[in-house]
Design goal:
The complex is a heterodimer of chains A (about 300) and B (about 375). Chain A is an all-alpha fold and about 300 residues long. Helices cover about 75% and strands about 5% of the residues of chain A. Chain A has eleven helices and two strands, in the order ααααββααααααα. Chain A has a two-stranded antiparallel ribbon with strand order 1-2. Chain A is globular, with a radius of gyration of 20 Å. The N and C termini of chain A lie far apart (about 45 Å). Chain B folds into two domains: about 180 residues, 3-Layer(aba) Sandwich (Rossmann fold), CATH 3.40.50.2300; about 150 residues, Response regulator (Rossmann fold, 3-Layer(aba) Sandwich), CATH 3.40.50. Helix content of chain B is about 40%, strand content about 20%. Chain B contains twelve helices and 13 strands. In chain B, helix 6 links the parallel strand 6 and strand 7. Chain B is globular, with a radius of gyration of 22 Å. Classes of the chains: A mainly alpha (about 300), B alpha/beta (about 375). Chains A and B meet through helix 1, helix 4, helix 10 and helix 11 of A and helix 2, strand 7, helix 7, helix 8 and helix 9 of B.
């Protein structure tokens, strides 16, 4: 494998990780601040993608689609929080899992009822299509570079929000001691709805951005949700920094594992078996990583909760 | 007096052994939700169209959604066989679900007509007298792609497929007929949506062509990402990545790709023309190959019902084997392992107006039979 190829694969791993971060950030905030396991986060990803596809097809503008994705996902998130999740805060995690799993089914079938069973069309805008040549001779997709840029912007924006603003201070305090900030006069229910809507908007944005290069179909959010859970467990529940580092780690492990493991096995086996076995091993790689991290640091790399 | 007449009539009737031919109960287990739903919906719609057009009132169709999960498919099959007491099962789209359901269903004496999944395990040593595949054996469309690759002059192909039974069949099938070198061979994860790493490998290799089998959403993702990568190598694949349901979601990224299929809407025969027209009129969309497979499966069943009663298993089986029905593909015949012997065409993705669809270029394999027939003891 040449250095250029390896560099390109590392970039791919980072880009994959940054998209995972958008999902994981919302999930970890909600879990950290509100103590709520939200399985329906993947549905918000799907709603963002479908909203973007529909609006982009209707208006011809990808940007309009992105804005629609943010708005629709945030609205869906707020509605979800007000109608269903509000009743689950004090309850056992299992109750939350059951309720949000039901939400997944409702959203999936609802989307299928509105949009049909066939995938929708969403494409990269012409201005962002094609490849560019990076220093070092790497030919890389312009759209994926844009995704990295957007992801990094969101990450710094979130960091500034959490570290430097009043809202961020309330969020951090809420993660630490929920009852105390309620006693100090912060309107908890509004804070929660806001945090939830923010997380939902991030998921919707991820769905729209990723939907342009993948398939916009019912159920597209669940595989990403599973990976997002792995990310927040590795990074530490409630920590945005942990979500970022965890996401990059998972992205790199998954991408590089999928390419390097078959190559490694090809040194002892024939190509076909190496490809097949390598692929099977690579699918386990991120879970092995998660287990390894948890053995060393049980509450994740930057875990906040005790 | 009246009582005596009735009693005599009843006794005569019972003694003569006349039975009224009963209808047929069909259990359709197919994928109607989640990412693979488009395929199941097409098969179901094609099947129901044929049943409706036959005008028969004696077919009771029970349709259930397997959600693409093998354990649910097994539960549904058990329910249909044991409590609904169906005579015939059909509908499964995906090979892994097929392998979970079919061996047990046929062993329990039920007929299974596959409108799609055709794993190699059921075509060779695992073949069964009650199992009929109306679509194809998985390998055949890939073998046709390999044959077409040879004809087009591809010498160094990069091949990839997901790591599951149909994916393995795909690469095996392609390599069986393809005579060139392999620039690379990769198995991806089932359900994987990000192919940046695989595409980077293709770019770094010295391949002159790409063969892939990625059904449903996986294919859409790969095609979009591949088209955006500016690699530009010619792509060949089986119809599963280029069917009517997928093309609208992929758009221009698929234009010009050559794909192999046993069916296309422009095959010239009366049955096919009528099928396409009535499908468009009924469902307001163009049929895919899956819809044609569902349609043919129903017509095969109806033709067998016309020749024998399902309670006489041997006669019904012989009627199914005879396959005396009008297929959308023209002449239809089964090989000894109950898989079709048929022409496999090469099609090109074109734009007709504002619809993306396929157009036949030629025949890749003529009167082709799958290689597993000789291992089948039937």
């Amino acid at each position: 494998m040449s250095a250029v190829l390896l560099a390109e694969q590392i970039l791919n791993g980072i880009q994959f990780g940054i998209m995972l971060f958008l999902m994981a950030a919302g999930l970890t905030l909600v879990f950290g601040v509100m103590g709520l396991i939200n399985l329906a986060h993947g549905s918000l990803f799907m709603i963002g993608a479908f909203a973007a596809a529909w609006v982009a097809a209707a208006t011809g503008s990808f940007t309009a689609g992105l804005i629609a994705a943010l708005a629709t996902a945030a609205a869906a998130g707020a509605l979800m929080e007000i109608i269903v999740l509000r009743r689950l805060y004090g309850r056992d995690h299992l109750d939350q899992v059951l309720a949000t799993f039901a939400l997944i089914l409702i959203f999936s079938e609802g989307t299928r009822a509105v949009f049909g069973s066939f995938p929708l069309f969403l494409e990269i805008p012409d201005a962002l299509s094609g490849t560019v040549v990076l220093p070092g001779g790497i030919q890389y997709s312009l759209y994926r570079l844009t995704l990295i840029a957007i992801g990094l912007t969101v990450a710094s924006g979130l960091y500034l929000l959490i570290a430097k603003t009043r809202l961020g201070m309330q969020v951090r305090a809420g993660e630490n001691d929920r009852e105390m900030i309620a006693a100090l006069g912060v309107d908890i229910s509004k804070l929660y709805t806001l945090v939830f809507a923010l997380g939902a908007a991030l998921a919707g944005l991820a769905g729209a951005l990723v939907g342009a290069i993948q398939s916009v179909q019912v159920g597209m959010g669940e595989p990403v949700l599973i990976l997002a859970f792995v990310v927040i467990v590795i990074g530490g529940i409630g920590s945005i920094k942990g979500a970022f580092v965890g996401a990059i780690l998972v992205g790199l492990t998954d991408t590089l594992g999928g390419i390097l493991l078959p190559a490694l096995l090809a040194m002892f086996m024939d190509n076909s078996s190496a490809a097949s076995t390598g692929s099977a091993l690579a699918s386990m790689a991120i879970y092995v990583l998660m287990a390894a991290v948890l053995i060393v640091r049980p509450s994740g790399l930057f875990g906040v909760r005790q | 007096m009246k009582f005596t007449t009735t009693a005599v009539a009843a006794a005569l009737l019972a003694a003569s052994g006349i039975t009224v031919a009963e209808g047929l109960k069909v259990g359709m287990i197919t994928t109607l939700s989640g990412g693979g739903a488009g395929l199941g919906v097409d098969v179901r719609d094609g099947f129901m169209l044929a049943v409706e057009q036959s005008g028969r009132k004696d077919i009771e169709l029970i349709i259930e959604d397997d959600q693409r999960k093998p354990d649910i498919a097994v539960q549904l099959a058990d329910k249909m066989i044991q409590s609904e007491k169906v005579d015939v099962l059909t509908g499964i789209i995906f090979s892994n679900l097929a392998m979970a359901v079919i061996p047990s269903a046929t062993a329990q004496g039920k007929f299974y007509l596959s409108p799609n999944a055709g794993p190699s395990q059921l075509a060779g040593q695992g073949c069964h007298e009650n199992y009929f595949n109306v679509a194809w054996q998985n390998d055949t469309l890939h073998e046709a792609a390999g044959a077409h690759a040879n004809e087009t002059g591809f010498r160094n192909s990069f091949i990839l497929a997901p790591n599951y039974p149909a994916g393995k069949d795909a690469l095996t099938g392609y390599k069986r007929s393809y005579e060139g070198e392999l620039a690379g061979e990769l198995f991806t994860q089932l359900g994987q949506t990000d192919y940046a790493a695989e595409i980077a490998q293709i770019r770094a290799s010295d391949a002159d062509s790409v063969f892939f089998f990625l059904p449903g959403g996986m294919g859409i993702s790969f095609l979009k990402q591949y088209a955006d990568s500016d690699i530009g190598l010619p792509v060949v694949g089986p119809a599963f990545s280029f069917d009517q349901g997928i093309l609208q979601a992929v758009g221009e990224a698929a234009l010009g790709v050559h794909n192999t299929s046993q069916w296309n809407k422009d095959i010239e025969n009366d049955t096919n023309a009528a099928f396409v027209e009535s499908f468009v009129a009924t469902y307001e969309r163009l049929p895919s190959l899956y819809a044609s497979q569902g349609f043919d499966t129903a017509n095969l069943l109806i033709s067998a019902m016309g020749a024998a009663d399902v309670s006489d298993q041997d006669a019904f089986r012989a009627a199914l084997k005879a396959a005396d029905f009008d297929s959308t593909r023209g002449d239809f015949a089964f090989a000894s392992n109950h898989h079709p012997i048929q022409d496999i065409y090469v099609r090109e993705v074109v734009r007709e107006g504002d619809v993306f669809t396929n157009k036949i270029l030629g025949v890749a394999l003529e009167d082709h039979q799958d290689v597993y027939a000789e291992q089948c003891k039937l």
